[in-house]
Design brief:
Number of strands: 11
Number of helices: 11
Distance between the termini: 43 Å
Radius of gyration: 18 Å
Order of helices and strands: EHEHEHEHEHEEHHEEHEEHHH
Strand order of the largest sheet: 3-2-1-4-5-6-10
Helix content: 25-40%
Structural class: alpha/beta
Strand content: 15-25%
Shape: globular
Largest sheet: 7 strands, parallel
Length: 298
């Protein structure tokens, strides 16, 4: 299969491209920098330098690649702001889908999130509606996610991967990542607050997924039926449980305890993904976090 990967050098893309090639697919991957292009070429993919906001340039790149399917893994999480990320979800996704239509591509796999569900008391399945009545600033994120999911659904075949919170190499939740800096009292705490809020060991529930498991799901999703699928590990957990384990793995002091949670902090169920045959190799953040202990800074 010929696969066009938008965001091929991001945290998921770095694992995804080798997995696609190993599975026998022909991969064209996008990058914005010379270093990214070189990395893709070394991996064995066909690199293309393109700006997702350049609609004509993107359409030309997709047409030249003539893919059978498109995988959308673009974000602005590395250096951007929530507004930048929202623009990619709205405008970038619009341009990707328009380029796919012009090139005759009818299938897309796209990255979404598993914490956009409406409030509830148990882990959310895909039948739970998105939190469309959320107040600002959460409303801005929900609006971007809604736009992304509705836009990709314009293609006949569309799989929306609602990923849990990433951890592992290259993510914020890694020994040299943004969250580790915050837990140690270092780095840009203002930027962390803009994206992840205050880190407090309270009752708020999170579902995690190791970034390599996320990439494996994207490969598997090439053959899944249309619709949203939660890609999370087996153990949704309250911050009072997972945050101390993460801090210990990063050599950081214990976080401040707290109580209470927002209604949307409910975690998500991976039952649908498992019904398709996907299983996370890192079945719990407990073992996943512990495996990172001692890595990164010393």
């Amino acid at each position: 299969m010929r696969v066009f990967v938008a965001g091929a050098t991001g945290v998921v893309g770095r694992f995804l491209v080798p997995l696609l090639l190993e599975a026998g697919h022909q991969v064209t991957g996008t990058a914005r920098t010379r270093a990214g292009l070189d990395r893709l070429r070394t991996q064995g993919a066909t690199p293309v330098q393109v700006d997702v906001f350049d609609a004509d340039g993107l359409a030309g790149a997709v047409a030249a690649a003539s893919p059978d399917t498109m995988i959308h893994q673009l974000t602005a999480l590395a250096k951007g702001t929530p507004a930048d990320n929202g623009r990619i979800r709205r405008e970038g996704t619009r341009n990707l889908v328009d380029a796919a239509v012009r090139a005759g591509v009818t299938r897309i796999v796209a990255q979404s999130v598993a914490w956009a569900y409406a409030p509830g008391d148990s882990p959310a399945g895909e039948d739970v509606p998105l939190d469309r009545s959320a107040p600002p600033p959460r409303a801005n994120m929900i609006g971007g996610i809604t736009a992304l999911e509705e836009t990709v659904a314009e293609l006949d075949e569309h799989v929306v991967l609602r990923y849990g919170t990433f951890y592992g190499p290259g993510t914020w939740y890694s020994p040299d990542g943004l969250v580790a800096d915050v837990l140690r009292g270092e780095g840009d705490t203002g930027r962390a607050a803009a994206f992840v809020g205050r880190l407090q060991a309270d009752d708020g529930v999170t579902s995690f997924v190791h970034v390599e498991d996320a990439a494996r799901a994207a490969v598997a999703a090439l053959n899944w039926p249309s619709g949203p699928v939660n890609i999370v590990d087996d153990e949704p957990a309250a911050a009072r449980d997972w945050l101390p384990v993460l801090a210990a793995a990063f050599g950081a002091p214990p976080p401040s305890p707290g109580t209470g949670r927002a209604g949307w902090q409910r975690g998500a169920s991976n039952a649908r993904a498992r019904s398709f045959g996907w299983q996370p190799r890192n079945s719990s953040w407990r073992t996943g976090f512990t495996a990172m202990e001692g890595a990164g800074r010393t």
